[in-house]
Design a protein that fits this description.
Strand order of the largest sheet: 4-3-2-1-5-6
Number of strands: 17
Order of helices and strands: HEHEEEHEHEHHHEEEEHHEEEEEEE
Number of helices: 9
Radius of gyration: 24 Å
Number of domains: 2
CATH architecture of the largest domain: Alpha-Beta Complex
CATH superfamily of the largest domain: Creatinase/methionine aminopeptidase superfamily
CATH class of the largest domain: Alpha Beta
Helix content: 25-40%
Length: about 400
């Protein structure tokens, strides 16, 4: 835990304190930010209050009195519940604006981890509980220069694998045949050869299966990949080392020389939406304004809605990327949530609009990095349908 950094962030954002709380590992964010062991045996409630100024305060049950010994601050204990309430009331009394892993109306559910009863209890003591969402992003999503370098290393490997995968699909389809599952397994082996790891294997979707945003082929019943088919490939991976960061892209191709006019139409709408998402983020930083995630989604989604396909764009525009492929920074989202978190410097996120029709789907995904006052696309940008 970096106490000085936390206290500085609290002062910058106008908080008087940040109250961390857990029971039975309900809040993994607290463990990461505080540097607590993820396997800490936790059967009783613990609390850790970091003020913007001064010494932190630890509150543990007497059954588990040493849970927070690794952290700086004054130690307090409780036993019976009335004593807990009295200690908590004393703990929060000096502070007006207290951050917790909470989000009004559960808008940012990824950080809204404190139960409603605890919020009610603290408010009954006069505490003003506010969302720690931007604080969490600052400590969970902001990347070091070394981590950013791992993203680019993964990019170089994944981009090559993506190009090779389309060629492999064409070669196999014309020489003995291949199905979605077989191509997915080929991709998994390619990742291993390149020293890449992932939380799940790539999406390989043909025709109507490309219209399922989270499709995953299975060994039994997987569709063959044939001449005249539309093929979507979505892959994400990172290099196999601690604290490495993911690279995540989606491209679309056609097996043959001439995709249909319908394919081209939908593809071009999705690309226009993606490019609007990119431009919206870049324009905001060029104007020296810190945008929020929902703004990028709104601008991107408007392009698809105007083209008449709004009902077929069924997910957010993009997500935070970090050590996990879905990170704890701002998502580009004004659909599933109104994500009002700031897009912070040295954070990564995807732009990946899609149109998912019954007969086929199109998604175009790039990653963007904010650094040095600007937002940049970190990898190749698909401009044309890949002809396989």
């Amino acid at each position: 835990m970096n106490l000085a950094a936390i206290q500085n962030a609290l002062r910058e954002r106008g908080f008087d304190a940040w109250l961390f709380y857990d029971h039975h590992h309900r809040d993994p964010i607290s463990y990461k930010i505080l540097g607590l062991p993820s396997d800490l045996h936790c059967t009783r409630r613990w609390y850790y209050l970091v003020p913007a100024e001064g010494e932190p305060v630890k509150l543990n049950h007497r059954v588990e009195p040493k849970h927070l010994d690794s952290l700086p601050g004054k130690q307090e204990h409780y036993g019976p519940w009335p004593e807990l309430h009295a200690q908590l009331k004393k703990m929060v009394a000096p502070y007006k604006h207290i951050a917790m892993q909470y989000s009004p109306n559960n808008n940012i559910m990824y950080v809204s981890l404190v139960d409603g009863g605890t919020i009610e209890l603290l408010r009954s003591f006069g505490a003003n509980i506010e969302s720690s969402a931007n604080l969490v992003a600052q400590f969970e999503a902001v990347l070091s220069s070394d981590q950013i370098a791992t993203h680019f290393t993964a990019r170089d490997k994944v981009d090559k694998i993506m190009e090779a995968a389309f060629k492999e699909a064409g070669h196999r389809s014309r020489n003995g045949g291949v199905n979605e599952y077989q191509l997915q397994q080929w991709l998994g082996e390619a990742f291993k050869r390149e020293g890449l790891i992932t939380d799940d294997l790539p999406i390989v979707g043909v025709n109507e299966n490309a219209g399922n945003p989270h499709y995953s082929p299975e060994a039994s019943g997987s569709k063959p990949i044939r001449e005249g088919d539309w093929l979507l490939l979505d892959m994400w991976a990172k290099i196999d080392r601690p604290d490495a960061v993911y690279y995540d892209i989606t491209w679309c191709g056609f097996l043959g020389k001439a995709p249909s006019d319908r394919h081209r139409e939908i593809f071009n709408v999705v690309l226009a939406a993606r490019d609007m998402g990119i431009k919206t983020a870049q324009d905001a930083f060029a104007a020296k304004r810190v945008p929020q995630g929902w703004e990028v989604d709104e601008a991107t989604r408007a392009v698809i809605t105007k083209a008449g396909y709004g009902e077929y764009f069924v997910h957010r525009t993009g997500h935070s990327i970090g050590v996990e492929v879905h990170g704890n920074g701002a998502n580009m989202d004004n659909l599933e949530t109104k994500d009002d978190r700031e897009i912070l410097p040295n954070t990564l996120f995807s732009i990946e609009p899609g149109i998912y029709l019954p007969e086929f789907g199109v998604r175009a995904e790039v990653d963007m990095l904010v650094r040095n006052g600007a937002a940049e696309v970190t990898g190749r940008i698909q401009r044309e349908i890949v002809l396989v």
